[in-house]
Design a protein that fits this description.
Elements: E1 8-13, H1 18-28, E2 33-38, H2 50-67, E3 69-74, H3 77-90, E4 96-98, H4 103-108, E5 114-119, H5 121-125, H6 127-136, E6 141-146, H7 150-155, H8 162-172, E7 181-184, H9 193-200, E8 205-207, H10 209-222, E9 234-239, H11 244-261
Parallel strand pairs: 1-2, 1-3, 2-9, 3-4, 5-6, 5-7, 7-8
Length: about 260
């Protein structure tokens, strides 16, 4: 086991969406070193097979652990559903934290009669979400909205894109004024909070990034792996599209994600 303050927290996602989780992690754990890997060359994972997502997740996790990761955060709902059990069995000595659609807090909110769950088709069909819905959705009308193509558009780096607005109008427009809240079941979606609210109305938006950050703190503390308060936090951003333009995009979207983490 790593000593206190040594090693870094490895965070990975299918692309830029995981930056929203990273923003929450940085807010919750300001003294930690983070290495973020976005697999933008293969995004989104929600359109891939179970076997392909598992293979990609294992490859990324192996690389991060080999470099000295003291914990892994799977900043992708699809990859969490597919790969978290395997990664936890393969790396039993380090914390492996995933994200999940924030259905529980949505159902516990004062207004919870009708909840929209935006997610990739893969997240909605996998057992993890179905178990969440069975456990917490009994007292609410949970409406699944598979947002095919939305993560692809967000990966292009323009959260205010008219194409995103058009897609949201098609997918969420019918529910304008009819939903009590929206669960953002893909880590890409918090990057377009404003557009979502413009379409569906000024309702609470729930995402799993803050919960994942709190769980990461809890797990690091329990394992004696929290960085000391004397350590300056840092972030290294990596992408499978290794170009200056892509790295500029990651830095810009991380700044946007950090703004959202403070809301």
């Amino acid at each position: 086991m790593a000593e206190q303050g040594t090693g870094f927290v490895g965070v990975f996602d299918s692309g830029v969406g995981g930056l929203t989780v990273l923003g929450c992690l940085m807010d919750e754990l300001p003294h930690e070193r983070f290495v973020f890997f976005g697999d933008s060359a293969r995004a989104p994972y929600g359109d891939k097979s179970f076997e392909e997502v598992l293979a990609l997740s294992r490859r990324i996790a192996s690389s991060l652990v080999d470099e000295g990761a003291k914990a892994l955060v799977i900043a992708c709902n699809t990859a969490t559903s597919v790969a978290a059990p395997t990664l936890r069995s393969e790396y039993p000595d380090i914390p492996v934290i995933g994200v999940e659609p924030a259905l529980k807090p949505a159902t516990l909110a004062p207004r919870h009669r009708r909840i929209l769950v935006m997610a990739t088709a893969a997240t909605l069909r996998l057992g993890k979400f179905q178990r969440l819905e069975d456990r917490w959705g009994a007292g609410s009308e949970v409406i699944e909205v598979p947002c095919v193509g939305l993560a692809d558009l967000i990966e292009q780096g323009d959260p205010a894109s008219p194409k995103i607005r058009e897609l949201l109008e098609r997918q969420l427009g019918p529910w304008r004024g009819k939903a009590d809240s929206v669960v953002l079941g893909c880590t890409h979606y918090p990057l377009i909070r404003d557009q979502i609210r413009e379409v569906v109305g000024d309702v609470p938006l729930f995402d799993g990034g803050r919960g994942a950050a709190r769980e990461t703190r809890r797990r690091l503390e329990a394992a004696g792996l929290l960085a000391p308060s004397s350590q300056a936090g840092s972030v290294e951003l990596r992408s499978s599209i290794d170009t200056p333009e892509e790295h500029d995009l990651y830095r810009r979207l991380l700044a946007l994600a950090q703004e959202g983490a403070g809301r």
